[in-house]
Amino acid sequence: MAHGPTSLYPKEVTLTNCDREPIHILGKIQKHGYLIACDATSHIVNYCSDNIAQILDKSPEALLGQSLNAVFDEVQTQQLLETKVAEKATPIHTTIEGQHYAMLAHLNEGNLVVEFEPLEVDANAFEYQNQLAEIVSKLNGAGEEQRMCDVTADLIKEFFGYDRVMIYRFDEHWDGIVVSEARESHLESWLGLRYPASDIPQQARKLFLKQGVRIIADVTSTPVHIQALGGKEQENPIDLSLSETRASSPIHIEYLENMNVGASLTAAIISEGALWGLIACHHYSPKFVDFYKRQSCKFLTQIFSSQLVLLSSNILLQKLNEASKTRSLLMEKITKNWNVHKGLTKGSHTMLDLTQAQGAAVFLDGKLKRVGITPDKEQILALINRLKPLEQDEVITTQLTKDLPELQDIKAKASGVMCLFLSNLKKDAILWFKSEKIETVNWAGNPDKLSTLDSNERLTPRKSFEAWSIQEEGKSAPWEDYEIVAARALKQDISQIILEKYDEIKGLHNLLQIAYEDLETFSYSVAHDLRAPLRGIDGFAHIIKEDYFEQLDEFGKSSIDTIIGSATKMNQLIDDILAFSMVSQSEMNKDKFSMNKLVDDVLGILPISQDYPSVSITVAPQMPQAYGDRKMIAQVLQNLLTNALKYTRAVEQPQITIGFKEHQNKGFYFVQDNGIGFDQSHEKRIFRLFNRLVGDEYEGSGIGLTIAKRIIKKHKGAIAVISKPGEGSTFLFNLG
Fold first, then answer.
1. Distance between CA 568 and CA 147 in Å, rounded?
2. What are phi and psi of 103, to 5 degrees?
3. Could you read off the pLDDT of 534-552 as tens digits, one per residue?
4. Which end of the chain is more exposed for a tag (fewer CB within 10 A), N or C?
């Protein structure tokens, strides 16, 4: 449903809706001003203030609908029509019945708006300019921020004569704090007091950005209504965003009355396009400051803002230069041994030097390292796990527990957190921590009681502005711009190093893959080519033993037996090497198959009854079906069962169990025995090529378990072992 302009007006402006009050279309101006407006295209007068007859000698009814050139003379009309959009025209001076006025024109929302306000003719313009030049000189020489604020407050009070001048700075929540003050000696000091954001709502802050300087000449005066052509002004309100004489919100007027303020001047301090704060001037009786003096105030405020930006920029550049040097040292350390953790957290320079934080941490590739005062490792990991789902590249806060109340346990060491994630997919991150800063804050009145009920039970602005002290907890010192910029630059540096290292490792991996494939081919060829001469050695040794054994002495007989035994071992080793090489070279033919049937088939080809007659083998019924290469899994089972039979041979009652069970929340097939077992500390070593934990009393080449692991890895599965000396081993595997 479409809404007309009248829908913008609350039926009644109260404290419950003042943040939505359309203060730019209130339809009123201040008592000292006069207004007439025409359509920018047709030049027909469509608005004028109720008091316009006081200076134009025509009633609003007589003016509405007239052409602009019927109101002003030809020269004035031409000057007014030269007004450009987004610019205020040069004031036109006029004298009416001995009173000097400035005619101020601007274009806005299709209307040419002309305002009249009294003009104070300064008898000594030269002295005025000298005073202004002196003020600029003093501002330029202020040096540092607090001194600049103090000088500005003193100079503006002296120049404009207000009873109280305050420099009012906004924080990140738009609460304001009086950082400097110049006042009459009998007035109570408001220096250091805080004012809640609701005192200057969002729409008022936006207008300050547009207008720059604004006065309320007489707080207690009755504002003047604006009449519109063809109906009530509120049915088609005029936009007064750029008006010099626009009336104030009744809520704001009541607020000033509660402070006993009679007049005010407010100038916006703008830093890099944002509202840094305000120069707030209070007078305790009516006070009018004309357009030119307000422009002087605007000019001085711009000088102050420029100096502020320059000072901030110089400090920022200095800090960034220092941070850049620190980053260079950190990168030099990291690239020496490609250790990001050590490079950032160890030595004379660490990532902590980039900020004013009390602690820092880096989490990379599942490894966490800390430096300085930080939460413990588990708390930091919990923090990362909590922040990552927010799907933000960075999280910067000074009130962590306000945003995430469940993290109260780290408030003391990490009320302030700056977390920058290094990857969109992984949880890798660099973090800095600022400790909780418990401080007493003095508010101008009770911040929890910003309004009171009057005799008619209507909410009104608070009447007390006495200092109200509150102890604030759960908040850290702010993150300065240079700290954030330095952290982002470090993130970029680390990301670049990781990328370079990844490319280097990728290149090495490709070379290694080629070398590995060549080695496997070579191993297969060598093993295959060794078979022929080995058969010859073994064959001739058997011929000698069969035909000439009795003719040999004892040494000769022993040598022949050694040759035959060694040839047998060599033949087995070649078989194992060929089997190992074939695992990588063979393509998998995956399909579903019965694990119980496969176990029966493997047991059928092993010489169990012949070589291991005393062993008891139990196979679990109805094991889950498997999906994989049946032939390869048969080899895994054969290797595991061969080991189980071999290492239970010396046990009185050898037992082997084959089944399926849950292990670490996953399903695994297993082969369990009650053989000799081994120390669990060797669980990784036992799967390495040619690694054996026993002597020659047990036959074998040390390749069987390596082949099993290679096959399981090829299936993207897992293989593990649980063992204890003298109690046996359990080998577990799954197929992914």
1. 95
2. -95, 120
3. 666 767 677 777 777 777 7
4. N
Tokens coding 666: 């996953």
Q: How many helices (H) and strands (E) does the chain have?
A: 18, 29
Give the pair of three-digit tokens for residue 596. 């119980």
Spatial neighbors of 184 by CB under 8 A, at least 6 apart, are: 163, 164
Which letter does DSSP use for residue 348 in this model?
S
Residue 343 has pLDDT above 60, yes or no: yes
Q: Which two tokens stand for residue 239?
A: 């936009």
Q: Are 243 and 35 in contact (CB under 8 A)?
A: yes
Distance CA 700, CA 690 (A): 9
Distance CA 402, CA 471 (A): 15
167, two tokens: 């420099």
Which helix (DSSP H) or strand (DSSP E) does residue 421 occupy? strand 416-421
Per-residue pLDDT tens for 27-60?
899 999 999 999 999 999 999 999 999 999 899 9
Query: Could you tell me the two tokens for 267?
Result: 């100038």
Q: Between these two residues, 529 and 262, which has the higher pLDDT value?
A: 262
Residues 217, 262: Cα–Cα separation, whole Å? 8
Rounded distance between C-alpha atoms, residue 676 and residue 687, angstroms: 17
Question: Do the Cβ atoms of 268 and 275 come closer than 8 Å?
Answer: yes
**pLDDT tens-digit map of 483-504:** 999 999 998 888 877 655 655 5
Q: Apex CA 276: angle with CA 270 and CA 277, to 5°?
A: 100
CA–CA separation, 195 and 509 (whole Å): 62
Residue 450 is given by DSSP the state -
CA atoms within 13 A on the CB side of 118: 13
The predicted model gives 596-625 an average pLDDT of 89
Residue-wise pLDDT tens digits, 164-211: 999 999 888 888 899 999 999 999 999 988 888 877 778 778 887 877
| Domain annotation for the chain: domains and CATH numbers | 5-22+123-226+241-315 (3.30.450.40), 26-118 (3.30.450.20), 339-479 (3.30.450.270), 480-585 (1.10.287), 587-734 (3.30.565.10)
